[in-house]
Amino acid sequence: MNNINRRSFFKISAGAVIGLTAGGISLRAFAAEQIKLDDPLAAAMKYTHKSEKEGQNCANCNLIQGEDGQEWRPCAIFPGKLVASEGWCAAWVKKV
Fold it and tell me: pTM here?
């Protein structure tokens, strides 16, 4: 039988906590759903999946999160939801 000393136990425990925390963040980001046009906040912000504003879309907004090139990405305005990179809402701010 292996005896785990106190120091090893704490190292393993700390690694497990960090792994679970990082994994939880990744799972929450992965589990986000695409925003629906009938969502109350989307309606209030006049969100649309396809921008009709010349040169303005979610992909070039300062509030968009995630990596460039993805079709659906998180947005600071709509927590827990994904917006279309080609979308637009009234909170659009030019990316600097």
Answer: 0.67
